[in-house]
């Protein structure tokens, strides 16, 4: 659940909008008008037709974000924000009310962090993360499990790297950057061998047998296996 609570006046200031009604009204979540569950939810109206939803759910909806030019019947809402560009305002509000993924403070004991790396104390580093030499990670960033960050790379403030992200060497990433699962930045050129099929015939695109990169390219770490391996070969079973 989102623990962020803002007055509607604070939100209006953030999106350069105008408050109509009670400026002290507190908002906890952004919600589509059909999904309003609490009097502290802010209904987001992007199109004039959605005003009908405000009227249908008048007993629950007490506040809204509305585009300039849309008329709100007097007394329908306790407070609302009027903005010139509702979608731009929505992007700002989503950042304010964002709910980060589950993570723990500090550096997980299975993470491999090079002794020359500089990781801010406020950064969260998840299990089996590999951080190379002379990497710098600024405050409030979240590094989820199985991320690899190459040598000399720099990561700004308040970044979020989801599981499986691969950052190459000497990569500069700014503030407030979100990189989603298994994305690769700064990857080397694909080898010419990856354009050969199983019979050695040259293709004009990467061979299908090379599509599953992680079958070969995986971070190497002297770490305890996640699951005990009891595999036996066919010869051992016999």
Q: Which descriptors would you attach to this protein?
A:
single chain; 238 residues; alpha/beta; Udp-n-acetylmuramoylalanyl-d-glutamate--2,6- Diaminopimelate Ligase, Chain: A, domain 1; five-stranded mixed β-sheet; 4 helices; 21% strand
Short description:
This protein is α/β, with parallel strands linked by helices and 238 residues long. 12% of the residues lie in helices and 21% in strands.
- Share of β-strand residues: 15-25%
Shape call? elongated
Total domains: 3
Largest sheet entry: 5 strands, mixed
Side by side, the strands of the main sheet go: 2-7-6-5-4
CATH superfamily of the largest domain: MurE/MurF, N-terminal domain
Mean pLDDT: 87
Number of helical stretches of at least 4 residues: 4
State the order of secondary-structure elements, H for helix, E for strand.
EHEEEEHEEHEEEEEEEEEEEEEH
> Gyration radius, to the nearest Å?
25 Å
Seen as an oligomer or otherwise, the chain set is single chain
Helix and strand composition category: alpha/beta
Range of helix content? 10-25%
Any idea of the CATH topology of the largest domain? Udp-n-acetylmuramoylalanyl-d-glutamate--2,6- Diaminopimelate Ligase, Chain: A, domain 1
- N- to C-terminal distance: 54 Å
Which CATH architecture of the largest domain is right?
3-Layer(aba) Sandwich
Q: Under the CATH scheme, which class of the largest domain?
A: Alpha Beta
Describe the structure.
This protein has 238 residues and is α/β, with parallel strands linked by helices. The protein folds into three domains: 6-96, 3-Layer(aba) Sandwich (Udp-n-acetylmuramoylalanyl-d-glutamate--2,6- Diaminopimelate Ligase, Chain: A, domain 1); 112-185, Hexapeptide repeat proteins (UDP N-Acetylglucosamine Acyltransferase, domain 1); 190-218, no CATH class. Helices cover 12% and strands 21% of the residues. It is built from four helices and 20 strands. The chain has helices at 8-14, 51-56, 86-96, 234-237, and strands at residues 6-7, 18-21, 26-27, 29-31, 41-44, 63-67, 79-83, 112-113, 118-119, 124-125, 130-131, 136-137, 142-143, 148-149, 154-155, 160-161, 166-167, 172-173, 178-179, 184-185. The strands form five sheets. It has a five-stranded mixed sheet with strand order 2-7-6-5-4, with helices on one face. It has a five-stranded parallel sheet with strand order 8-11-14-17-20, with no helix packed on it. A four-stranded parallel sheet has the order 9-12-15-18, with no helix packed on it. Helix 2 (51-56) links the parallel strand 5 and strand 6. The longest helix has 11 residues, at 86-96. The protein is elongated. The model has no long low-confidence stretch (mean pLDDT 87).
């Amino acid at each position: 659940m989102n623990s962020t609570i803002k007055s509607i006046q604070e939100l209006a200031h953030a999106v350069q909008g105008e408050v109509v009604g009670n400026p002290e009204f507190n908002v906890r979540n952004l919600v589509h008008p059909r999904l309003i569950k609490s009097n502290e939810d802010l209904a987001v109206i992007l199109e004039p037709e959605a005003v009908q939803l405000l009227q249908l759910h008048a007993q629950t909806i007490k506040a809204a974000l509305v585009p300039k030019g849309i008329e709100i019947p007097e007394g329908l809402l306790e407070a609302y924000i009027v903005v010139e560009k509702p979608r731009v305002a929505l992007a700002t509000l989503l950042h304010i009310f964002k709910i980060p993924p589950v993570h723990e403070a500090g550096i997980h004991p299975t993470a491999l962090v090079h002794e020359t790396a500089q990781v801010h104390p406020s950064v969260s580093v998840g299990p089996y993360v590999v951080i190379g030499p002379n990497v710098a990670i600024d405050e409030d960033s979240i590094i989820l499990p199985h991320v690899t960050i190459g040598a000399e790379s720099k990561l700004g403030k308040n970044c979020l790297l989801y599981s499986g992200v691969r950052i190459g060497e000497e990569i500069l990433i700014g503030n407030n950057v979100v990189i989603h699962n298994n994305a690769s930045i700064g990857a080397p050129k694909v080898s010419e061998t990856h354009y050969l099929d199983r019979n050695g015939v040259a293709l004009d695109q990467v061979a299908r047998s090379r599509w599953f990169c992680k079958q070969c390219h995986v971070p190497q770490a002297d770490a305890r296996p996640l699951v005990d391996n009891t595999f036996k070969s066919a010869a051992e079973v016999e």
